[in-house]
Amino acid sequence: MPTNDRAFRYDLDYRQLNLREQPELYRVGKGEMGVLLVQPYKSEILPFWRFKTPDIARESSEKIFQLFQDYKQKGDFIGMDMARKFLQMGYTRARRYANHRTGQKYDGPVPNDQKGRSGSHGREQLPRDEDPVKAESARIFYSKYLEAREDPDYQKLKKAWQEKYG
C-alpha cells in the first residue's frame, strides 16, 4: 500500500482488475493519474477520445461529457472521475501538439537515470510553434473539462469518496 492513501495505486494489476466490481481500490490521485489504466472505464471512454481538429475535438468532448453525465445519473463516481480525466487529457495533449508540431516536448530520449520520473529531467525543452487548430481543440476540451470538474454533484461525490476511501 502506498504511504499516501490518496495517491493513485500504480501497484495494482489493472489488466486483471475491474474497478466497477472493486471500487474501493480506486484512488483519484492528481490530474490525469491512471487515465489509461482503470477498467472498464478506459475501454468505455477511450474510443471517443480525439482532438485532431476543432470539429473532432468538439464531437469527442461532447461525447465524453455525455458519458460523464451518464455515470453521474448512475451514481458512478469512478466513471465521472475517469471521464473528467479524459477531458483533462484532451486538453493537455491538444495543448502539447499546439505547442510542438510532433507532440514531442523535449529534445532527445529520457536519460536512463531519469526514466520513470515526471517532467523533463535532463532534457532541453524544444522551442514552441503555436498551431492555432490544435490550440482551438485544446480550448474546446478545456471548457468541457472545467464543466465536469466544477459540477456540484461531482465535487460532492469526490469529497465523499476521498473521505471514505482516502
Question: Could you give a short account of the major beta sheet?
Answer: none
> Helical amount among residues, as a percent range?
40-55%
The parts where pLDDT drops under 50 for at least 5 residues are: none
What is the structural class?
A: mainly alpha
Structure description:
By secondary structure, this protein is an all-alpha fold. The chain has one domain. 48% of the residues lie in helices and 0% in strands. It is built from five helices and no strands. Helix 3 packs antiparallel against helix 4 (132-149). It is globular and about 45 Å long.
Write the layout of secondary structure elements.
Blueprint: H1 41-45, H2 54-73, H3 77-99, H4 132-149, H5 152-165
Region (Disordered): 98-135
Protein name: DUF4385 domain-containing protein
Pfam families: DUF4385
